[in-house]
Amino acid sequence: MSVMLDILGSFVLLGMLMLTVMSVNVNISTETYKSVSEFNTQSETIQLARILEFDIYKAGFNVPKPAIAIAETSRLKFYANLYNTPGRVDSIQYGLGELNGSSTNPYDKQLFRFENTAKVFINYSVTGFKFTYYDARDSMLTAPVTGTWRDSIRSIKVFLTLESPEPYDSKYAGAYYEKMIYPRNLQ
Amino acid sequence: MNTGQMLLVLGALIILSMTSMGVNTMIINKTETMLDAEAGLEATSLAQTMIDEVMTKSYDNATVTEKVYHEADLTDAEGLGCSSTERYNVPQPDTTLKSMKYYNDVDDYHGYTRVFSTPLMGKFTIKDTVFYVIEANPDQKSLGETFHKKVVVTVTHPNLLRPLQLSDVVVYRRYF
Fold it and tell me: What is this structure's pTM?
């Protein structure tokens, strides 16, 4: 009888042991996935922010007015001499494309960057992308800003939200970037 | 099972529990680091926005409408900060970005506090300090007026492990 109790006890202990090890394992896997997902989303946001800042800070540099061609809520087109090449006028355009059909996330869209004639999709995980425009008195201009009002744009605020393409625990890893950019050549 | 074996089993279970707890602690620490990174990303963009905003303003209250050629004509080093009208128009902490509209020179931002809310991370507190620095060594605070002012922006957030600080030097050179 005592031997039977020992065997039973050892099975209970084995069960507990296995459950503990398995839960630790599951926790590690989930957290690894979660951190990789968050890391990727944050890295992509930083990269996008750097690209956007590189371009928008140069708006109006070494080109005739008007420097801003399109100033809409989710689309911006402007002119700048991006690489300081004599006589050159580059046109740069940002906007949101179609929904990304290849991911589980139902809200992520493609973000495109148009430089002169080359259209490149620079990200596929953008869930929020918005521009707001401000004049010299830092008052917000109603978008779309059209006609001669485009010349009164002095600063551009960029809102950017990225989410991971796949969820964990039915949640998506997200990163948010918001910045008011004052291009020197629009001042 | 005798007492010795029971003790061994108990000891093994304790070691296992401690290992499991160690792993869980590691996971929590990692989550803190990830939140710190996420808050750091937003804090950096907010601090840069703040510095860019300050940079668009006039160097000094004395230079808003006219040129200044002598350092003595600038605002006293002791008296940096906003005027009573600006203080009335921009209550602290500023939550609606009123500084953009009502402040007109760099040192108005001395002692300025902004509370800014973002959709993912909530409220960030941004504090500014402005002081004159020695032209030959912009890291050193000057007790008198100079044509160089340093702007220090400090951002705090519950998820930031330590406050984020960015600084830049504003130079009065527009008319020289």
Answer: 0.83
